[in-house]
Amino acid sequence: VHTSFVGSGVESLELLRNSRIASYRSINTLARVLSNVASYYATLESLLAEEAPSIIRDDRPVPRHASFLSDVRSSGYENLTETEAREFLAAYRLPFLDAQLCISEAELHDAREHYGFPLALKIVSRDILHKSDIGGVVLNVATEEELQRSFKRILQRAKSHCPDCDIDGVLVSPMASPGHECIAGFSRDATFGPIVMYGTGGTQVELFKDVALRGLPLPESEVRKMLDEVRGTTLLRGFRGSTPADVDSLVAILSVLAKIASEHPDIAGLDLNPIIVNEHGAQIVDARITLVRNV
To answer: Is the peptide bond before 274 cis (omega within 30 degrees of 0)?
Structure first.
């Protein structure tokens, strides 16, 4: 309810406002407010009417995984391991770089036979959120000797950093194809709800803050505007004769993130960093999911 009483006293205005009724001294102010409210709802209706990008449209049902997330929370933790995040997000058909969890040298051998060299190794533990900070990531492993040494060293570093950590193993994957690093994700604001983010990835996101943000709903037109707002997107579209990357693959990922944020209010935040994008598509290299407390 919005009201305006021309000539009303201060006491009348305070009475209305204390009753949570919007009131204005000027009828012109009231007219501007109502115009803005009408414009907002017209825009919202237009956004809701837009269809999801055809690139992600699929008739297959997507599991909600409510019990999966509940099981993690019941264990006393608020974050998923990377392997759990991959398992959860697999239902949404996001393009992850293939990987295999290894807890023994025999499994390490199988991964090497499957992927070949070069390889990337990283520790998997619910108690270690920042893997690189403890030396829990090794890239470009190119020989059998280096593979064995790196596997043992990562486990030793993790145990030295956190002797009581619950370590799931070491995630082994091929090195991602060359491309541009991007970041995408969402967080949940107490006032505005889910906020989807896209930006230049890797260490550059912290240095340049080259990101764009949007609330829900997030139709394809708004996703593409997000990409336009990020300066790094210029590199993806072909800069000085370079081959353009598959920007549509990023549009699909951001649309899926909006879908996940809408369907899972128990997820506080989700980060995909880095996402490697080139002319062949996108590959998600790492994922992190944090749950809402006390849901």
So the answer is: yes
pLDDT for 10 beyond 80: no
Residue 191's CB: how many other CB atoms inside 10 A? 4
Peptide bond into 217 cis (omega under 30): yes
Contact by Cβ (8 Å): 194, 262: yes
**Burial grade of 254 (CB within 10 A; 0-12, 13-18, 19 or more):** buried
Q: Give the pLDDT confidence of 44-64 residue by residue, as tens digits.
A: 666 556 655 544 444 444 454
Q: Is 258 exposed, middle or buried (0-12, 13-18, 19+ CB in 10 A)?
A: buried
Backbone angles phi, psi at 113, to 5 degrees: -65, -35
Q: At 287, is the secondary structure helix, strand, or coil?
A: strand
Record the tokens describing residue 68, joined without a space.
């999966």
Global pTM value = 0.79
SS3 for 128-178, per residue?
CCCCHHHCCEEEEECCHHHHHHHHHHHHHHHHHHCCCCCEEEEEEEECCCC
How far, in Å, are 38, 96, 141, 196, 257 from residue 115 at the CA level?
A: 57, 15, 12, 33, 29
Residue type at 200 in one-letter notation: T
Bond from prior residue into 118 cis (ω within 30 degrees of 0): yes
pLDDT at residue 167 greater than cutoff 60: yes
